[in-house]
Recover the amino acids of this structure.
C-alpha cells in the first residue's frame, strides 16, 4: 500500500470500530447480535482491502487496452512502447509511460481516466547520464516546445565536435539549420551554456572561453564566410571548411 492507502485503511478501520461500538450500545441487550454484526463488518472491511490488488489489476489491464486503442487511432503510423502492462505495487492504476520505438530514451506519461479519456500528465527522459561526446542528443527532448507525442520530431545531426576539459562544443544541423551548442560537462553534471542557430545555407558562430567556434553550412555558396566578433573585428572562414567545426 502507498501512504495514502494506509491512511485510508486506518481511517476506515477507525470508522468500523466506531460503528461496532454503536452496535454494542444499541444492541446492549442482544450482545450476540452485536458481536455477530460487528464481526461481519470487520471481516467485510478486511476482505475489501484484501481484494483491492485484484480489482486494481483488472482496472489497470482494462485501461492498458484503452491506451493502446487511443494510440492506434491517433498515431496509426507509429509504434510505441507502453509500460507497465500489468499492475504491481507502486503503480498508479491507469497511468502509463509511453515512448516512440525510435526514441525509447524519452517519452510521456499518459493517464486514462474513469471515462476512458486519455491525457498527458508529464514527460520524461530515461535519466541515463550521457557520455561527453553524446550530450548534444538531449536537445531532441528539450529544444523548442515541451515534448509531447504531437510535437513534430526534430531532426538533429552532429557535424563536428570540440572537447577540452569541461568545455564541449558541437556543430549541429537542427532541421537542416546550422547550429552550434556549447556545454559545460563534468562527472557531476552538465548544462547547456549557449545555443546559436542560423538560416540554412549560412554561417553560425559562438565565442566562448576566449575562442571562436564557426560552422559554415554545407549549402553556403560564397567563397569566404565573414563574421563580426564581439570586439568589432571581422573574421573570415574559407568556404573549403564547409561542414566542419572551425576553432580559432
Amino acid at each position: 500500500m502507498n501512504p495514502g492507502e494506509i491512511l485510508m485503511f486506518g481511517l476506515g478501520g477507525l470508522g468500523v470500530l466506531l460503528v461496532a461500538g454503536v452496535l454494542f450500545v444499541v444492541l446492549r441487550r442482544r450482545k450476540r447480535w452485536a458481536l455477530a454484526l460487528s464481526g461481519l463488518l470487520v471481516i467485510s472491511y478486511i476482505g475489501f482491502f484484501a481484494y483491492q490488488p485484484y480489482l486494481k489489476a483488472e482496472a489497470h489491464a482494462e485501461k492498458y487496452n484503452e491506451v493502446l486503442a487511443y494510440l492506434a487511432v491517433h498515431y496509426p503510423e507509429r509504434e510505441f512502447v507502453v509500460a507497465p502492462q500489468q499492475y504491481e505495487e507502486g503503480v498508479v492504476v491507469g497511468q502509463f509511460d509511453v515512448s516512440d520505438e525510435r526514441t525509447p530514451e524519452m517519452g510521456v506519461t499518459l493517464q486514462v481516466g474513469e471515462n476512458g479519456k486519455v491525457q498527458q500528465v508529464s514527460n520524461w527522459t530515461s535519466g541515463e547520464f550521457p557520455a561527453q561526446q553524446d550530450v548534444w542528443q538531449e536537445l531532441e527532448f528539450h529544444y523548442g516546445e515541451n515534448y509531447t507525442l504531437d510535437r513534430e520530431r526534430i531532426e538533429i545531426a552532429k557535424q563536428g565536435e570540440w572537447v577540452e576539459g569541461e568545455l564541449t562544443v558541437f556543430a549541429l544541423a537542427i532541421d537542416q539549420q546550422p547550429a552550434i551548442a556549447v556545454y559545460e560537462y563534468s562527472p557531476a553534471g552538465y548544462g547547456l551554456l549557449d545555443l546559436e542557430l542560423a538560416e540554412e545555407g549560412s554561417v553560425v558562430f559562438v565565442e566562448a572561453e576566449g575562442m571562436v567556434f564557426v560552422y559554415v553550412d554545407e549549402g553556403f555558396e560564397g567563397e569566404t564566410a565573414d563574421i563580426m566578433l564581439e570586439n568589432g573585428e571581422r573574421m573570415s572562414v574559407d568556404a573549403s571548411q564547409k561542414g566542419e567545426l572551425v576553432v580559432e
